[in-house]
Design goal:
42% helix
Length: 365
Protein backbone atom coordinates (compact mmCIF):
# COMPACT_ATOMS: atom_id res chain seq x y z
CA UNK A 1 0.00 0.00 0.00
CA UNK A 2 1.46 3.36 -0.99
CA UNK A 3 1.67 6.20 1.56
CA UNK A 4 -1.03 8.87 1.60
CA UNK A 5 0.04 11.42 -1.01
CA UNK A 6 -0.11 15.16 -0.32
CA UNK A 7 -0.01 17.69 -3.16
CA UNK A 8 1.53 20.57 -1.24
CA UNK A 9 0.97 23.97 -2.88
CA UNK A 10 2.10 25.95 0.17
CA UNK A 11 4.87 28.38 0.97
CA UNK A 12 6.51 30.30 3.83
CA UNK A 13 5.30 28.88 7.19
CA UNK A 14 1.68 27.92 7.97
CA UNK A 15 1.22 25.54 5.05
CA UNK A 16 4.78 24.16 4.98
CA UNK A 17 4.67 23.47 8.73
CA UNK A 18 1.42 21.53 8.30
CA UNK A 19 2.86 19.58 5.36
CA UNK A 20 6.06 18.85 7.27
CA UNK A 21 4.06 17.50 10.22
CA UNK A 22 2.33 15.10 7.85
CA UNK A 23 5.63 14.18 6.22
CA UNK A 24 7.16 13.45 9.62
CA UNK A 25 4.47 10.80 10.11
CA UNK A 26 5.09 9.04 6.81
CA UNK A 27 2.82 10.91 4.37
CA UNK A 28 4.28 11.28 0.85
CA UNK A 29 4.47 15.08 0.60
CA UNK A 30 5.18 16.54 -2.85
CA UNK A 31 6.16 20.18 -2.35
CA UNK A 32 5.26 22.17 -5.47
CA UNK A 33 7.59 25.15 -5.83
CA UNK A 34 8.01 27.85 -8.43
CA UNK A 35 11.14 27.68 -10.55
CA UNK A 36 12.61 30.29 -8.16
CA UNK A 37 11.66 28.20 -5.13
CA UNK A 38 9.83 28.93 -1.90
CA UNK A 39 10.93 32.43 -0.85
CA UNK A 40 12.06 31.12 2.52
CA UNK A 41 14.97 29.43 0.72
CA UNK A 42 16.49 32.93 0.71
CA UNK A 43 15.70 33.85 4.33
CA UNK A 44 18.75 34.58 6.49
CA UNK A 45 20.68 33.17 8.19
CA UNK A 46 22.13 30.68 5.75
CA UNK A 47 24.31 27.70 6.56
CA UNK A 48 26.37 26.37 3.68
CA UNK A 49 24.08 28.27 1.33
CA UNK A 50 20.85 26.82 2.78
CA UNK A 51 18.36 28.85 4.81
CA UNK A 52 17.97 27.53 8.35
CA UNK A 53 14.37 28.80 8.20
CA UNK A 54 13.61 26.68 5.13
CA UNK A 55 15.39 23.69 6.65
CA UNK A 56 13.26 23.72 9.80
CA UNK A 57 9.95 23.74 7.88
CA UNK A 58 10.54 21.47 4.90
CA UNK A 59 12.01 18.12 5.91
CA UNK A 60 10.32 14.90 4.82
CA UNK A 61 9.14 16.32 1.49
CA UNK A 62 10.03 15.91 -2.16
CA UNK A 63 10.47 19.07 -4.23
CA UNK A 64 8.71 19.40 -7.59
CA UNK A 65 9.62 22.65 -9.39
CA UNK A 66 6.79 23.84 -11.66
CA UNK A 67 5.93 26.98 -13.58
CA UNK A 68 2.21 27.07 -12.83
CA UNK A 69 1.70 29.89 -15.35
CA UNK A 70 2.92 27.64 -18.15
CA UNK A 71 0.36 25.23 -19.68
CA UNK A 72 2.81 22.36 -19.30
CA UNK A 73 3.40 23.16 -15.64
CA UNK A 74 -0.34 23.39 -14.98
CA UNK A 75 -0.87 20.05 -16.69
CA UNK A 76 1.66 18.45 -14.34
CA UNK A 77 -0.08 20.07 -11.37
CA UNK A 78 -3.44 18.74 -12.56
CA UNK A 79 -2.02 15.26 -12.87
CA UNK A 80 -0.49 15.53 -9.39
CA UNK A 81 -3.79 16.69 -7.89
CA UNK A 82 -5.59 13.85 -9.62
CA UNK A 83 -3.16 11.38 -8.06
CA UNK A 84 -3.22 12.92 -4.57
CA UNK A 85 -5.25 12.03 -1.51
CA UNK A 86 -4.72 15.42 0.11
CA UNK A 87 -4.36 18.88 -1.45
CA UNK A 88 -2.91 21.58 0.78
CA UNK A 89 -2.65 25.23 -0.30
CA UNK A 90 -2.18 28.65 1.30
CA UNK A 91 -2.32 31.07 -1.62
CA UNK A 92 -4.42 34.20 -1.26
CA UNK A 93 -8.06 33.38 -2.01
CA UNK A 94 -8.71 33.12 -5.74
CA UNK A 95 -5.15 32.36 -6.86
CA UNK A 96 -5.68 28.61 -7.29
CA UNK A 97 -8.94 29.31 -9.16
CA UNK A 98 -7.23 31.73 -11.55
CA UNK A 99 -4.59 29.09 -12.25
CA UNK A 100 -7.34 26.59 -13.10
CA UNK A 101 -6.36 24.49 -10.09
CA UNK A 102 -9.09 25.40 -7.59
CA UNK A 103 -11.32 22.97 -5.76
CA UNK A 104 -14.41 23.90 -7.77
CA UNK A 105 -12.63 23.04 -11.02
CA UNK A 106 -10.53 19.99 -10.18
CA UNK A 107 -11.46 18.79 -6.69
CA UNK A 108 -12.93 15.31 -6.35
CA UNK A 109 -15.38 14.07 -3.70
CA UNK A 110 -12.73 11.81 -2.18
CA UNK A 111 -10.16 14.61 -1.85
CA UNK A 112 -9.19 16.11 1.48
CA UNK A 113 -8.65 19.67 0.28
CA UNK A 114 -7.27 22.12 2.84
CA UNK A 115 -6.96 25.87 2.26
CA UNK A 116 -5.32 28.23 4.76
CA UNK A 117 -5.96 31.96 4.40
CA UNK A 118 -6.30 35.09 6.51
CA UNK A 119 -10.10 35.20 6.77
CA UNK A 120 -11.37 32.19 4.81
CA UNK A 121 -11.46 31.14 1.18
CA UNK A 122 -14.13 33.68 0.15
CA UNK A 123 -12.48 36.80 1.61
CA UNK A 124 -9.32 38.33 0.19
CA UNK A 125 -6.55 39.21 2.61
CA UNK A 126 -2.86 38.61 3.27
CA UNK A 127 -2.29 36.04 6.00
CA UNK A 128 0.91 37.36 7.56
CA UNK A 129 1.58 36.31 11.13
CA UNK A 130 2.00 39.78 12.65
CA UNK A 131 -1.16 41.02 10.93
CA UNK A 132 -3.18 38.10 12.30
CA UNK A 133 -1.67 38.37 15.79
CA UNK A 134 -2.67 42.05 15.73
CA UNK A 135 -6.22 41.60 14.44
CA UNK A 136 -6.61 38.54 16.67
CA UNK A 137 -5.85 40.54 19.87
CA UNK A 138 -2.70 38.57 20.68
CA UNK A 139 -0.50 41.69 20.50
CA UNK A 140 -2.63 43.72 22.92
CA UNK A 141 -2.80 40.82 25.37
CA UNK A 142 0.97 40.40 25.21
CA UNK A 143 2.20 43.95 25.71
CA UNK A 144 1.49 47.67 26.11
CA UNK A 145 2.38 49.03 23.60
CA UNK A 146 1.20 45.99 21.63
CA UNK A 147 3.80 43.23 21.35
CA UNK A 148 3.72 40.09 19.20
CA UNK A 149 4.32 36.70 20.75
CA UNK A 150 7.87 35.55 20.02
CA UNK A 151 7.16 32.53 17.80
CA UNK A 152 4.87 32.97 14.79
CA UNK A 153 1.88 31.51 16.61
CA UNK A 154 -0.70 32.63 14.03
CA UNK A 155 1.09 30.55 11.41
CA UNK A 156 2.06 27.64 13.64
CA UNK A 157 -1.35 27.24 15.27
CA UNK A 158 -3.04 27.42 11.85
CA UNK A 159 -0.70 24.69 10.66
CA UNK A 160 -1.75 22.37 13.47
CA UNK A 161 -5.44 23.03 12.74
CA UNK A 162 -4.71 22.17 9.10
CA UNK A 163 -3.20 18.86 10.18
CA UNK A 164 -6.30 18.15 12.25
CA UNK A 165 -8.42 18.95 9.20
CA UNK A 166 -6.46 16.45 7.12
CA UNK A 167 -6.79 13.72 9.75
CA UNK A 168 -10.52 14.28 10.29
CA UNK A 169 -10.98 14.34 6.52
CA UNK A 170 -9.22 11.01 6.16
CA UNK A 171 -11.41 9.62 8.94
CA UNK A 172 -14.50 10.85 7.08
CA UNK A 173 -13.27 9.19 3.90
CA UNK A 174 -12.62 5.90 5.68
CA UNK A 175 -16.17 5.95 7.07
CA UNK A 176 -18.13 7.31 4.11
CA UNK A 177 -15.89 7.18 1.05
CA UNK A 178 -16.08 10.97 0.79
CA UNK A 179 -13.36 13.42 1.76
CA UNK A 180 -13.69 16.89 3.22
CA UNK A 181 -13.23 20.48 2.07
CA UNK A 182 -11.39 22.26 4.91
CA UNK A 183 -11.39 26.07 4.86
CA UNK A 184 -9.17 27.50 7.60
CA UNK A 185 -9.41 31.15 8.59
CA UNK A 186 -6.28 32.18 10.46
CA UNK A 187 -8.36 34.76 12.32
CA UNK A 188 -10.68 32.01 13.56
CA UNK A 189 -7.60 30.14 14.76
CA UNK A 190 -6.39 33.20 16.66
CA UNK A 191 -9.79 33.63 18.29
CA UNK A 192 -9.75 29.98 19.35
CA UNK A 193 -6.47 30.70 21.15
CA UNK A 194 -8.10 33.49 23.14
CA UNK A 195 -10.00 30.76 25.03
CA UNK A 196 -11.12 32.17 28.41
CA UNK A 197 -10.42 35.77 27.30
CA UNK A 198 -12.91 35.41 24.45
CA UNK A 199 -15.45 33.64 26.65
CA UNK A 200 -15.23 36.36 29.30
CA UNK A 201 -15.70 39.07 26.68
CA UNK A 202 -18.59 37.40 24.85
CA UNK A 203 -20.48 36.11 27.89
CA UNK A 204 -19.68 38.49 30.73
CA UNK A 205 -18.63 41.68 28.93
CA UNK A 206 -15.32 41.45 30.77
CA UNK A 207 -12.29 43.36 29.56
CA UNK A 208 -8.96 41.54 29.97
CA UNK A 209 -6.60 42.93 32.59
CA UNK A 210 -3.59 44.99 31.48
CA UNK A 211 -0.92 42.86 29.77
CA UNK A 212 1.19 40.93 32.25
CA UNK A 213 2.42 37.45 33.03
CA UNK A 214 -0.30 37.03 35.65
CA UNK A 215 -3.30 34.74 35.13
CA UNK A 216 -6.68 36.53 35.35
CA UNK A 217 -8.23 33.71 37.40
CA UNK A 218 -5.33 32.36 39.49
CA UNK A 219 -2.93 33.81 42.08
CA UNK A 220 -0.08 33.45 42.66
CA UNK A 221 0.67 32.80 39.00
CA UNK A 222 3.44 35.00 37.63
CA UNK A 223 7.11 35.48 36.85
CA UNK A 224 9.10 36.55 39.91
CA UNK A 225 12.51 38.20 40.18
CA UNK A 226 15.38 36.31 41.79
CA UNK A 227 18.91 37.56 42.30
CA UNK A 228 20.11 36.43 38.86
CA UNK A 229 16.98 36.00 36.74
CA UNK A 230 13.30 35.18 36.64
CA UNK A 231 11.29 32.23 37.96
CA UNK A 232 7.71 31.28 37.07
CA UNK A 233 5.49 30.08 39.92
CA UNK A 234 2.03 28.68 39.26
CA UNK A 235 -0.30 27.79 42.14
CA UNK A 236 -3.54 26.78 40.45
CA UNK A 237 -5.24 25.36 43.56
CA UNK A 238 -5.26 25.64 47.34
CA UNK A 239 -2.92 22.70 47.91
CA UNK A 240 -0.24 24.25 45.71
CA UNK A 241 -0.66 27.63 47.38
CA UNK A 242 -0.19 26.09 50.84
CA UNK A 243 2.98 24.33 49.64
CA UNK A 244 4.39 27.63 48.38
CA UNK A 245 3.37 29.44 51.55
CA UNK A 246 5.19 26.89 53.69
CA UNK A 247 8.26 26.72 51.43
CA UNK A 248 8.71 30.50 51.44
CA UNK A 249 7.59 30.96 55.06
CA UNK A 250 4.99 33.50 53.95
CA UNK A 251 2.72 34.85 56.70
CA UNK A 252 -0.83 33.57 57.19
CA UNK A 253 -2.34 36.80 55.93
CA UNK A 254 -6.18 36.73 55.98
CA UNK A 255 -6.12 38.41 52.56
CA UNK A 256 -4.46 35.33 51.08
CA UNK A 257 -6.65 32.57 52.52
CA UNK A 258 -8.94 32.14 49.50
CA UNK A 259 -8.35 32.24 45.77
CA UNK A 260 -10.75 35.17 45.36
CA UNK A 261 -8.96 37.21 48.01
CA UNK A 262 -5.54 36.35 46.61
CA UNK A 263 -6.66 37.63 43.20
CA UNK A 264 -8.04 40.78 44.84
CA UNK A 265 -4.75 41.36 46.67
CA UNK A 266 -2.51 40.04 43.91
CA UNK A 267 -0.13 43.02 43.90
CA UNK A 268 0.72 42.70 47.60
CA UNK A 269 1.10 38.92 47.32
CA UNK A 270 3.38 39.17 44.29
CA UNK A 271 5.49 41.77 46.06
CA UNK A 272 5.86 39.53 49.13
CA UNK A 273 7.02 36.66 46.92
CA UNK A 274 9.47 38.92 45.07
CA UNK A 275 10.96 40.12 48.35
CA UNK A 276 11.38 36.54 49.56
CA UNK A 277 13.07 35.38 46.33
CA UNK A 278 15.33 38.40 45.86
CA UNK A 279 18.24 37.07 47.93
CA UNK A 280 18.48 33.69 46.17
CA UNK A 281 19.43 32.59 42.68
CA UNK A 282 17.07 31.01 40.18
CA UNK A 283 18.61 27.53 40.27
CA UNK A 284 18.43 27.31 44.06
CA UNK A 285 14.82 28.44 44.27
CA UNK A 286 13.78 26.25 41.34
CA UNK A 287 15.28 23.21 43.06
CA UNK A 288 13.92 23.92 46.53
CA UNK A 289 10.41 24.92 45.46
CA UNK A 290 10.26 22.05 42.99
CA UNK A 291 11.21 19.65 45.77
CA UNK A 292 8.35 21.10 47.82
CA UNK A 293 5.91 20.21 45.04
CA UNK A 294 5.40 23.74 43.72
CA UNK A 295 5.15 24.13 39.89
CA UNK A 296 8.12 26.33 38.96
CA UNK A 297 10.33 27.00 35.96
CA UNK A 298 13.25 29.27 35.19
CA UNK A 299 12.78 31.78 32.35
CA UNK A 300 15.32 30.38 29.89
CA UNK A 301 16.83 31.67 26.68
CA UNK A 302 16.44 29.59 23.51
CA UNK A 303 19.90 27.95 23.85
CA UNK A 304 19.30 27.28 27.55
CA UNK A 305 15.90 25.73 26.83
CA UNK A 306 17.27 23.49 24.07
CA UNK A 307 19.95 22.31 26.52
CA UNK A 308 17.36 21.47 29.21
CA UNK A 309 17.82 17.90 30.49
CA UNK A 310 14.31 16.97 29.38
CA UNK A 311 14.63 18.47 25.87
CA UNK A 312 15.10 16.23 22.83
CA UNK A 313 16.69 16.87 19.44
CA UNK A 314 17.38 14.77 16.37
CA UNK A 315 19.83 15.00 13.49
CA UNK A 316 18.78 14.54 9.88
CA UNK A 317 21.64 14.69 7.43
CA UNK A 318 23.63 17.67 8.69
CA UNK A 319 20.64 19.40 10.33
CA UNK A 320 19.74 19.30 14.02
CA UNK A 321 16.21 20.24 15.08
CA UNK A 322 13.94 19.84 18.12
CA UNK A 323 12.27 16.44 18.13
CA UNK A 324 8.64 16.72 16.93
CA UNK A 325 6.18 15.95 19.75
CA UNK A 326 4.92 12.86 17.89
CA UNK A 327 8.38 11.70 16.88
CA UNK A 328 9.49 10.83 13.36
CA UNK A 329 8.41 8.05 11.01
CA UNK A 330 10.20 9.47 7.95
CA UNK A 331 13.80 10.69 7.89
CA UNK A 332 14.28 12.74 4.72
CA UNK A 333 16.42 15.93 4.87
CA UNK A 334 15.00 19.17 3.41
CA UNK A 335 15.08 18.94 -0.39
CA UNK A 336 16.98 20.98 -2.91
CA UNK A 337 14.86 23.00 -5.32
CA UNK A 338 13.43 20.61 -7.90
CA UNK A 339 15.49 17.76 -6.48
CA UNK A 340 12.70 15.26 -7.12
CA UNK A 341 11.09 16.72 -10.25
CA UNK A 342 12.25 13.91 -12.51
CA UNK A 343 11.31 11.26 -9.97
CA UNK A 344 7.80 12.61 -9.41
CA UNK A 345 7.16 13.16 -13.13
CA UNK A 346 8.08 9.54 -13.73
CA UNK A 347 5.63 8.42 -11.05
CA UNK A 348 2.94 10.54 -12.73
CA UNK A 349 3.47 8.66 -15.99
CA UNK A 350 5.63 11.08 -17.99
CA UNK A 351 8.12 9.45 -20.32
CA UNK A 352 11.75 10.52 -20.40
CA UNK A 353 11.14 12.34 -23.68
CA UNK A 354 8.13 14.17 -22.23
CA UNK A 355 10.10 15.13 -19.14
CA UNK A 356 12.88 16.57 -21.28
CA UNK A 357 10.32 18.51 -23.31
CA UNK A 358 8.73 20.02 -20.20
CA UNK A 359 12.11 21.11 -18.91
CA UNK A 360 13.15 22.57 -22.28
CA UNK A 361 10.00 24.69 -22.57
CA UNK A 362 10.39 26.09 -19.04
CA UNK A 363 7.44 24.25 -17.52
CA UNK A 364 9.51 22.36 -14.95
CA UNK A 365 12.81 22.82 -13.17
Amino acid sequence: MRPIRVADFTRVLAGPWAAQTLGDQGFDVIKVESLDGDETRRFAPLREGVSVYFACTNRNKRSLALNLKHPGGREVALRLIGDADVVLENFRPGVMDRLGLGYAAVGRPEHIWVSISAFGADIDGAGYDLVLQSIGAITTLTGDPPQKAGPSIADLASAQIAVQGVLFGLLDRARTGKGRRVDISMLDVQHSLLAYYASASLNAGAEPPPPSNAHPSIAPYNLYRCRDGWLSICCANEALWLRLQRALALPDDPAWRTLASRIQHRAALDEAINVRLADGDVATWEASLGAAGVPVGAALTVPQSLAHPHAHQFTLGTWTQPMPPLGLVSHRPPPGLGEHTEEVLGELGYTEEEREGLRAMGATG
